[in-house]
Amino acid sequence: MAHAQLSPRNIPDRLQGRGARLLKSWEALLVVVAAAIFLGNSLASPYFLDPWNLSDATFNFTEKAMIAFAMALVIISGEIDLSVASIIALASTAMGYAVQLGLDTPALVAIGLGVGLVCGAVNGLLITGLGLPSIVVTIGTMSLFRGLSFIVLGDQAFTGYPESFAWFGQGYVWWVFSFEFTLFVLLAVVYGVLLHKTNFGRAVYAIGNNQTAALFSGVRVARVKFALFLMTGLMAGLASICLTSRLGSTRPSIALGWELEVVTMVVLGGVSILGGSGTIPGIVLAALIMGMVTFGFGLLNVPGIVMSIFIGLLLISVIALPILWQRARRRLSQ
Amino acid sequence: MTAKLLKNREILLVMAIMVLLAVIALRFPGFVAPANLARVYNDTSILIILALGQMAVILTRCIDLSMAANLALCGMVAAMLNTAFPGLPIPLVIVAVMALGGLLGMANGTLVWKLDIPPIVVTLGTLTIYRGLIFLLTDGKWINAHEMSDAFKALPRQDLAGVPVLSWLSLVMIAVMFVVMGRTPLGRAFYAVGGNPHAAVYTGIDVGRTRFFAYCLSGALAGLSGYLWVSRYAVAYVDIAAGFELDIIAACVIGGISIAGGIGSVAGAVLGALFLGVIKNALPVINISPFAQMAISGTVIIIAVAVNARAERRKGRVILKKAEAA
User: Fold this and answer.
1) A189 touches chain B (CB under 8 A)
2) Could you give the number of structural domains in chain B?
3) Which residues of B are less than 8 Å from A132 in CB distance?
4) In CATH terms, is domain A52-317 a member of 1.10.3470.10?
5) In chain B, count of helices (H) and strands (E)?
């Protein structure tokens, strides 16, 4: 056996080769699932492979995915933000209010992003400033932000957005590529670089794995976390602009329940809900999978609520199956 | 002595509710009339029952986001049982939906216990699955008041010694949970598992199994609430109690049950639920739009968690001082 002669110096620093690791990774599994769903959809419905249909399908996930990128970082750092959907509602309400005052598109965008940032800052201050658990704080702000939107709107709706504002949710950059999809790709690259190639990204992982150790290694834990919540707020503001522009109206129930879908997307993407691990390519794949499942079922006239059963099963089974698989393998090897 | 009293979360909460009632009473004395307070209690009964179940789960460092969906599914099944077999005695229906709720809770508990999936992920998944199942069962149809038997609708309203059965049921549940949490090995195990899971293992407590039982309990209570909800409002459809899971958690958080596990009491859960109940019932009286309720409960949650966090920190210091003195 070669292992017996290994001196300490040539102990491999990686137990498996790069290729083997890639093949066995969560992302590889997601690629297989995505390919299977893509194939299944194109066999099940003749309308699936049309480029314009596929382009329409992207609207199912682009807005949620924008938030999912930022949420992934938050969850990797060991926190969670359940208030994102409510931030969308509040930002959308603020934009709708601004329209009534006669403001135009650039101001609306600034207001949408601004409200997102402020909401994120509120979360961040409560969590890092007062040291409160993020899950409770964001359940509270989830109620608060949407509640404010309900106070302003009640059972009414804001409409009458300017025509130029519609471009964010309905415009196309080139051929079938919508503004939203282009933004999604752009943000995927930005977040991929931020998480995987910068000091900030390493700090996020460090905090998620061991917050105390990170603190003692000189990571400014509170500051990084504050930045993450600010970022999630900003992304929710951005998603709010896209969604409001796409729908052309604001009701206080806008994006209701999205926080769960975003968290599902992040967990499906291989981010550990306990923090410390996960990748941006995983999120991209999870977004594509969820978008295709929703769209494929839609083409087959499956009601939305049945799709949500499927998403729920998907969420539990993608986490349960690897655990069961590992156990079965361990039992076999014994 | 007074300082100690002031640090007691339950007493603080009682005082907060008193202040709230006093403020309302200044303008609307009718609100604090005993008959009306009994009505407010009755209206909060379902939330109290649910908060008791959620408390057990949160004590073990878990969370049950699927309670409202479980409630809706069990409520729908209760209504379907009633329309299919109008002659079926109502107590049997209640037992059946409690068993069903318990089973749904068992599904959560098994996934948490046997597969070690984080509780928030499990219940996030089952939340959508349970609600989806209602749709599969009914095809999205409603079951309306005229399809339910009179006995089915009347039970929660029935008067027993001047108090409606709904209130009695919640009082019984409070008493049962009081005994379970304080006087049984299982109740103490909930605290032990949440307080320090590793230490609990060394004292011979099966952490996973304890969590499993907590989920069974919350599931069964959600099942009971399902019947109560549907019979009280006399309608069952897919979206009943949508979003109510957050109210339940809010009641627990306001009641001082630490989301980090191990800290909390039956009294806290009840008072937390009552606090929300008083606010909900007072808003229309003091002429604030019911749309404001959501923002108010959100603010209350944040204040409550901030106050609780401070109280918990102080408590740690006091223990240390005592140890030094001894």
Assistant:
1) no
2) 1
3) 305-306, 309
4) yes
5) 14, 2
